[in-house]
């Protein structure tokens, strides 16, 4: 089938929305937003307002207003920033533990020893990616290493981990041969290494969505995570029936942040954001019914 839809001006985009039943009280305001938020980016936020008509085309439910759609977009942006803040702190912490355990146990360039990893092939791909990051990096500590040292060609593990992406870090960690090593890295977060392996893989997917400013709040996630059974202080707060929603990710993020920084208010800030945006249904995010009564969302954990 040939794609023959022509590009539309901002005014034409607004007229199309109106023809499908959306109310646009302020045409100029809507045009200003569409000039800075791509029509198809914003479209993800009005999909819940659509319903099929008798012809099979999609029209908006009665009462749908442009401002409602925009409110969901703004909420999701604020929500992604909260999630990104948590991911950043956890990623930095895992990098630190990876370098600390492997470096102190096997030496400054432990990651160059392929015998410490399950797959030499995966190890080779990781090293190739790391070499590329090293070659293009302009970080001061990397520039210093390039000028002062020639052997080994790559920096020590405590510097190398700082130029790994979260996805690369996840692969390195998963590929560590000895379960003891993985568990010693995971122990600081009071979780089993299998849980951390799964969560890092899952988190790299979430991180990519956030980095590309993609809709997150009610997305059906592609990569799920292993829900921990221990410790009991956190296991009861998960919602296994909604594994493809963001809720379980939020619980895990909040738990790990609390281990790293006892008394964190991050989970309370998530709750506050939801309370300030009452039009958002937490059930669409995978929150369980009566989630507000759970201790996790009611105090500094």
Structure description:
With 301 residues, the protein is mainly alpha-helical. 54% of the residues lie in helices and 2% in strands. It is built from 13 helices and two strands; from the N terminus they run H-H-H-E-E-H-H-H-H-H-H-H-H-H-H. Helix 4 packs across helix 10 (193-211), helix 4 runs antiparallel to helix 13 and helix 8 packs antiparallel against helix 10 (193-211). The chain is globular and about 65 Å long. The model has no long low-confidence stretch (mean pLDDT 94).
Q: Can you tag this structure with a few keywords?
A:
301 residues, two-stranded antiparallel ribbon, mainly alpha, globular
Sum this structure up briefly.
The chain has 301 residues and is mainly α.
Count of DSSP E strands?
2
Output mean pLDDT: 94
Residues in helices, as a percent range:
40-55%
Neighbour order of strands in the largest sheet: 1-2
Rounded to the nearest angstrom, the distance between the terminal CA atoms is: 55 Å
Q: Return residue spans where pLDDT drops below 50 for at least 5 consecutive residues.
A: none
Count, helices: 13
Biggest pleated sheet: 2 strands, antiparallel
Query: What is the H/E order?
Result: HHHEEHHHHHHHHHH
Rough outline: globular
- Strand share of the residues? under 5%
Q: Tell me the radius of gyration.
A: 23 Å
Structural class: mainly alpha
């Amino acid at each position: 089938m040939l794609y023959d839809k022509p590009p539309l001006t901002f005014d034409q985009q607004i007229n199309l929305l109106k023809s499908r039943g959306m109310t646009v009280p302020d045409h100029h305001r809507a045009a200003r937003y569409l000039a800075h938020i791509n029509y198809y980016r914003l479209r993800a936020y009005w999909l819940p307002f659509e319903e099929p008509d008798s012809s099979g085309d999609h029209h908006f439910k009665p009462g749908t207003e442009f401002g409602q759609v925009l409110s969901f977009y703004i909420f999701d942006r604020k929500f992604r920033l909260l999630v990104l803040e948590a991911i950043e702190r956890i990623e930095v912490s895992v990098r630190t533990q990876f370098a600390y355990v492997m470096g102190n146990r096997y030496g400054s360039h432990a990651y160059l020893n392929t015998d410490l990893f399950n797959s030499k092939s995966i190890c080779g791909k990781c090293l190739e990616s790391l070499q590329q990051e090293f070659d293009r990096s302009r970080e001061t500590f990397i520039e210093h290493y390039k000028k002062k040292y020639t052997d080994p060609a790559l920096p020590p593990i405590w510097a190398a981990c700082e130029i790994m992406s979260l996805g690369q870090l996840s692969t390195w960690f998963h590929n560590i041969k000895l379960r003891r090593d993985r568990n010693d890295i995971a122990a600081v977060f009071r979780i089993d290494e299998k849980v951390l392996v799964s969560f890092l893989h899952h988190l790299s997917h979430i991180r990519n969505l956030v980095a590309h400013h993609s809709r997150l709040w009610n997305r059906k996630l592609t990569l799920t995570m292993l829900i921990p059974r221990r410790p009991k202080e956190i296991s009861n707060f998960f919602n296994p029936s909604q594994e493809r929603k963001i809720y379980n990710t939020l619980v895990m993020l909040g738990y790990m942040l609390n281990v790293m920084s006892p008394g964190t208010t991050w989970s309370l800030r998530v709750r506050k954001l939801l309370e300030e945006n009452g039009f958002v249904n937490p059930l669409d995010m995978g929150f369980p019914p009566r989630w507000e009564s759970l201790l996790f969302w009611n105090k500094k954990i």
